[in-house]
Design goal:
Length: 150
């Protein structure tokens, strides 16, 4: 009887750590996508970096994982990545359409952070939005919503 209880307890803690690890992977993927938007105009400004950190703290950080750590982890992963597809595919599999639309709005917030939305930033957001299967109408709504916030 005691072994059944111990086995159940071990299974619960294993499931919890697996779920936490999966969430870390998803959060890092979102951070990589955010960096891709910020760096798409060939420079990452301080306001863009600060906006990414704020968004990570607000929406994507977990307990025990600071936004700075998450951002640095995402930077090193981005350097080794071949493109957006793996990250957008993970987001499509794990996030609802509402969460993906929110993510596109966050991309726009990053682009507007330095006061200038470069054509390369817009193209990167459009590409990510398409890969996330966000409808064009929601893409435009997200852009307008982020523009009002600036």
């Amino acid at each position: 009887m005691a072994f059944k209880w111990l086995k159940q307890l071990t299974r619960i803690s294993t499931d919890d750590s697996t779920e936490r690890a999966e969430q870390e992977v998803l959060n890092r993927a979102m951070a990589v996508l955010m960096l891709e938007i910020a760096q798409s105009d060939f420079s990452e400004s301080a306001p863009e970096t600060q906006t990414i950190k704020t968004l990570l703290e607000t929406y994507h950080s977990q307990e025990g994982c600071a936004a700075d750590e998450l951002l640095e982890s995402a930077r090193s992963e981005k350097e080794q990545s071949a493109g957006l597809y793996a990250y957008t595919r993970l987001a499509c599999n794990e996030l609802s359409i509402e969460a993906r639309i929110t993510l596109v709005e966050q991309f726009w917030q990053i682009a507007y952070a330095d006061g200038v939305v470069d054509k390369y930033e817009e193209a990167a957001i459009r590409k990510a939005s398409d890969l996330l299967y966000v409808p064009h109408s929601d893409f435009i709504k997200a852009k307008l919503s982020a523009a009002k916030g600036t």
